[in-house]
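quick one before i forget lol
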Amino acid sequence: MAGIGLQLDTAGAKWNESPELARQTLETARALLRHSRTEARRAILDLRASALERGDLASALQEAATVIGSGLPVRIPVRVEGPPRRLSGTTEAHLLRIAQEAMSNAIKHGRAEEVALTLALSMQVACIRSHNRRITAMTTRTLMIACLTGLFVLSATGNAVAVEGLELGTNFWNPGWHRPSDCFRDLKNVSGEDPWNPQFLKEVAIFKSLRFMDWDNTNGSMREKWGERPHKSDRKQNPVAYEWMIDLCNRQHADLWVTLPHRTVTHAIGDRPCDYALRLCLLVKTGVDMGEVDLQPLLDRLARMKPEELIAAGGKKSCEPLSSEQKLYVEYSNETWNGMFKQAHYCCDEGEAAGLDKNPWTAGFRYHAWAAIRVFRAADLVFGAESPRVVKVLATHIANSWITGQHLLVLADPKLNPWGVKASAVAAAPYFGHKVDGAAPDAVGQLREAIRQCAEQSAKQRKLSDGAGLKLIAYEGGQHVLKSATAVNRSPAMYDLYLEYLREMSKYYSHFSHYCHVGRAGDHGAWGAIEFTGQPVSEAPKYRALLEWAHGPAKTP
């Protein structure tokens, strides 16, 4: 602190006669301050051992709150619910560390006036919720810690950064499968700077990521080259142009999740990046459409090239880039393990042609990873290797962890992955209830059992992803009733089932992309969280549960 004061005094004395020297001195002071904060933070975290040695978790939390709030205009009351009891040393240390981080974040990022800390020692999930990181405006901020049966959920509401186990995203249904005004004001005449239905924007504001698989008509797509993609200037947007996807994500401050058409990668490209993925990543990062410009001579410097350099090389400004605060999820195709889709058989054929295995299905599973690596390589070349802005998604089958193992084998094989490209996450689709008849007298009980089975499958996937050092995320998920689906999906019981389901999924997944946001309900499938844009929340039990998970008690947007 003395060093910081000395630097500030020098800057003040030199401000008029030597502004440049004063500026340099201020930079030095800033560096010292950052170092001091780091050391102070370490010192605070070191309280973990000593505080727990002197007392129980409750007293350690109180001591941490006193130290963290010392000298700051913030109140940190600590309250304990349930009968006092000691936990394992590891558990108490983890909870204390989480609480320290959360209190610091609430004060630093949320400018909290009050951080109410509650330690709930209970065997019940009760009212504890995990929330996403979206910031909302509230005067009083609340932070809660729940000590459950082996599951610790930390949630924050208000202008504090929330630490949670499950972040919400959503999928969109093909825009031709519901009302043409549900998303765009008019799907058949998309134009102007703001073609969006404003109510749609309000309703999807709760989601951290937007997955555009159906908007791009990914399943069965015949698209092979970049020039075949839809354009922003097309009046009818189905499939939807990437520029509109980027525009929506920028408006919503949401991450962009794209699924590349399967035919954009062939076994013939060998050890080269996917050209289509290169151009898509450049559009997302810079807003420049490189058209048919040969990118091969530019590969070594794509990550450093600015928009004006790309334009000088022959590209054209097509849209604003994705905000630098948002992430890009890149995924090869969709469910290439699923035999009902053309891309599954394409991968089998390409995998056999590439000599990945004699069994066509094994070859197809391995080809998915092989192709994904070529897509990930393209993202690395544009954004830089291991960029925190890119989430490289390796999608698998929730009920078949063997497929996941095949993907990981390909990823680890230097002959098939010559660049040593890394994935960011394994992604599965933890649906529940596809065997349940929604009209059965015990349909709710069957759905609850289906959630349990889904959790068992997710646990296997989590074990594999943890072993590979990857996150586990859900590219899709939700109820999957295919018989008499309408009534049970509209039932108030679905609200409670969804909250139970989300709590279970939060044990295994860090990010969950629900399928889907808006879509008509039918007896052979009712996929939408809402059936139409503007549907009252009281009539949409699935959306009400998602809304409460994201923000607390549901309110109509």
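fyi Residues 1-45 form one domain.
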